[in-house]
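Writing this down once: the sequence line spells out the residues, with the fold written below as integer tokens. This is how one looks:
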Amino acid sequence: MRLVDEFRAPGAVDALAKRIGRVVTRPWRIMEVCGGQTHAIVRFGIDQMLPPTLSLLHGPGCPVCVTPIERIDRALFIASRAEVVLCSFGDMLRVPGSETDLLGAKGRGADVRVVFSPLDALAIAEREPQRQVVFFAVGFETTAPAIALAAERARQTGIENFSLLVAHVLVPPALEAVLGDPECRVDGFLAAGHVCTIMGLEQYRPIAKKYRVPIVATGFEPTDLLQGILLLVEQLESGRHEVENQYTRAVTAGGNAHAQSMLARVFEVVPRAWRGLGEIPRSGLGLRAEYRSLDADLRFPEGPAAAAEPEVCRAGRVLRGIERPTECPAFGSDCTPAHPLGAPMVSSEGACAAYYRFRSPA
């Protein structure tokens, strides 16, 4: 995403880092919510530019990472059926279930296809009416409108062999879950700019007020992140806890009303289980009653028994900002991108993958 001219000045990154250093007078702990922000921070060494008293924590802002093993196993079970074509975004293929992943299932003969849009999956259903086409609907509020559009199109066109395995999650309840954790160490949040583009800022104001934490909607470039950190630090140092918008070139206070309306027509808010955080009330999206005919959980009601996460994997503690990936004893040895124990090691937005790629010794 292109930066506006005033953010492109030579030396802007160093100047922002030095300004942050002049403002900070005491220890603060800031959590970035988005996995894309995590990768930018680690890749560009943004955390290493900051004063040692200012810590950046990595949060549950990767939807692939927080999809629990039960949902992965459910997708694997559905994909194993001979009549099913299971479609997914590519970043879900390497996420481990209890025994294998979708790529492994594909290698064993399951018809698993990578698509770039849920509308691509709908087109497959239209071309292959003899097959049951299931789209694995994973993501935050950012991707949910496209899935809602596909559901509306399926209903309008009468395509009956298309369904959705829904695993959508919502960001604000996750922030509350992090803040309510007894081990919580977060003083302020960098909110995900792309989610705020859809949903706006209003849903964060009650959280900032209740927990007395500042929240800044922030973009993904180094200057975006440093500006967001500066705005947070200025609030923390002055004792304020407000919602601010660094990402003004994309985010408005009200968000995208058309996308929000589409979400409201197709989905309702439901409880959702999160990897590492457990079940969080009102933290997910489920299909409304009028769209239940598209619910893959109802179309394929049987399924595998519930499975537990590997005990050695510390993904849950990483996703809550309690530990860094390198503090996990399995990091880089028993858990690598080639042989992952948890989703954060293989997701393109996972914190463990970022540390393995950019911080592992050569």
Remarks:
- The longest helix spans residues 222-238.
- Residues 34 and 192 are 5 Å apart (CA to CA).
